[in-house]
């Protein structure tokens, strides 16, 4: 567990609009005031250096190892897509991620830019908790994603250069499940259940659930419905279609494969940790983002 008052943090982010410059400056000013050692991902550092004033004590990191050895927590500055990128930096280091939202919906990046100062005060006071999130692992020969073959949200197989649907043969623990005639198929974690899977009619799963959700994308057969299975199960997929090239994506990364490739998906051997403030539980975030419990009839 990290100390109540952070001493060393890393910052990763993407480009942001001018409307966020003032708040980002405030973040760095507050970190400097607290004498917290800060290192920033090198390309993001270059972007920031043209927009805000950073102390000469702010360093940079390029490799994952540099970040692992010099940070107690990673601040992800962006939307949920930035958080997904952050997972590949964290790997199995167990360094927690704090999501600061410059995007729109933000199920993972829950801290608003205008609440940065309040969030740092709550961290100083120990008003936070850690939450483990399950990852899934993609196994192929050859390995399409190298040593980054893990993801927080989902694996998606889908058609590439055709308007025709594809055939996806799905097996669970070696037993045939179904052939999905569809535009694609989503294998989602509980975290990913509020993402692409949800937009395709999949259920919302609480983060602590040990489940995968199999959700077809625009299925031809209306009897092909989202299906919840145990995360202890292993899923195998074989894909066919009029074209021989298909796409597989893992969170925000994408690769092309052909029909000779067999895809295996299972629970990853390690998880990642989120740092959440005490007033930002999954249920409260869900209610706020989905506008549940509000009367919209007037």
Describe this protein's structure.
The chain is 20% helix and 35% strand. The protein has two domains: 8-134 and 271-290, Probable inorganic polyphosphate/atp-NAD kinase, domain 1 (Rossmann fold, 3-Layer(aba) Sandwich), CATH 3.40.50.10330; 136-267, Tumour Suppressor Smad4. The protein has a six-stranded parallel β-sheet. The chain is built from seven helices and 20 strands. The protein has 298 residues and is of the alpha+beta class. The chain has helices spanning 21-33, 42-49, 64-69, 80-90, 116-124, 196-199, 282-290; strands spanning 8-13, 37-41, 59-61, 73-78, 97-101, 111-112, 128-133, 136-139, 150-151, 154-159, 166-172, 175-182, 184-188, 211-217, 227-230, 235-240, 245-250, 253-258, 263-267, 272-277.
């Amino acid at each position: 567990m990290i100390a109540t008052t952070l001493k060393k943090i890393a910052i990763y982010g993407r480009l942001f609009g001018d409307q966020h410059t003032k708040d980002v400056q405030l973040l760095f000013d507050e970190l400097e005031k607290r004498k917290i050692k800060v290192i920033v991902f090198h390309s993001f550092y270059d972007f920031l250096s043209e927009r805000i004033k950073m102390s000469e004590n702010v360093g940079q990191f390029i490799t994952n190892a540099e970040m692992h050895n010099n940070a107690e927590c990673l601040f992800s500055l962006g939307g949920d897509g930035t958080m997904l990128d952050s997972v590949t930096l964290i790997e199995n280091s167990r360094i927690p991620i704090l999501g600061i939202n410059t995007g729109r919906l933000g199920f993972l990046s829950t801290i608003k830019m205008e609440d940065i100062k309040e969030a740092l005060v709550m961290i100083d006071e120990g008003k936070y908790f850690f939450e483990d999130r399950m990852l899934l692992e993609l196994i192929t020969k050859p390995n399409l994603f190298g040593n980054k073959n893990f993801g927080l949200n989902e694996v998606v197989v889908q058609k590439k250069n055709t308007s025709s649907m594809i055939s996806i043969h799905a097996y669970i623990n070696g037993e045939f499940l179904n052939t999905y005639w569809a535009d694609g198929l989503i294998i989602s974690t509980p975290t990913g259940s509020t993402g692409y899977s949800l937009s395709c009619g999949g259920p919302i799963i609480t983060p602590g659930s040990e489940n995968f959700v199999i959700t077809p994308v625009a299925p031809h057969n209306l009897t092909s419905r989202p299906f919840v299975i145990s995360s202890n199960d292993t899923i195998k997929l074989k894909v066919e279609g009029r074209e021989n090239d298909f796409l597989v994506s893992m969170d925000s990364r994408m690769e092309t494969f052909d029909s000779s490739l067999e895809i295996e998906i299972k629970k990853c051997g390690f998880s990642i940790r989120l740092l959440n403030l005490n007033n930002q539980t999954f249920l409260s975030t869900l209610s706020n983002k989905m506008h549940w419990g509000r009367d919209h009839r007037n």
